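Protocol step 4 of 6: structure prediction from sequence.
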Amino acid sequence: MLKIRHKMKRPQELNLPNPDELEWVDFKMIHWHSGVLGALHSKMMLIDGKTLIMGSKNLDGDTSMEYMYVLEGAVVSSMRADFQDIWGDPIPALPILVTDYKDGDFPVVVVSRSAGADITADEIHSPQNQAWLKSMDVATKAVYIQTPNFCERAIAHKVLETVKRGIEVTIVTSIRQQDFNEAVGRTSMGSNSGTMEDLFADLKNHPKTLGKLKWCWYIGIRSGPSPNPTQAEWSHVKSMVVDDEFAIIGSGNQDPQTWFHSRENNLLMDNPDVAKRIKKELLRPQQSLKWCYTGKPGEKRLK
């Protein structure tokens, strides 16, 4: 079994400044070195223990669709504690921050999962995985999912359950995104395209579900409308919006790596106004929903 190891690296190995070049900054770095599976996939920045920035963006040059959120309040303390657990060593203490309830505040639940390098792992009872599954269980109208990869077996089965209850499920994902890598996991249904084929093949035996599942390849806003998704244009967003009542955002993809191996951080935001705004802002730079496949007879599949 692989063991997760945290390793200090010299800044120059990562093309970063030396600490003595940063006169007013106490600069330290830990590099997660844990093989392929037990990766650190979380993306967050904490500032003065008061502000949290988190979402889908890595510190790299990829040009996919991304999102980040800025939050304040009690959730920042929770994420700082999570960061300390990731860091593994003591971090500077901060004064206790007392925040009174204000108009505009709303409940936020941290739903994360720790890293695990066991290649046989298939345990679904992490806070992250249960948040996704239980959120779909309580859906009464519609679920919107946007993820670069959709191929994990448990969430695919949950989509089928949800659609068969008469709930509309919309999935926005990326065409031909890491197809070979995603097919490797033991709980993977294969590529995004393969998962789509399997879902609609199952739903053929349930005619009352026709049109309830909408599978949409990510297509950004361009100079003119185009129904052709391309591998070069893809979405790295990870989100779930349920009934326009609450939303889950963070670093987690709908693939075996996220479900069973990587260190992930996500937030469940329980506020209808916030949920609606998140979905509105995610849809604004894309035209994916114009070209969704729903399994209706004679309907064209984009490839």
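Step 5 (inspection) to follow. The domain at 109-291 is CATH 3.30.870.10 (Endonuclease; Chain A).
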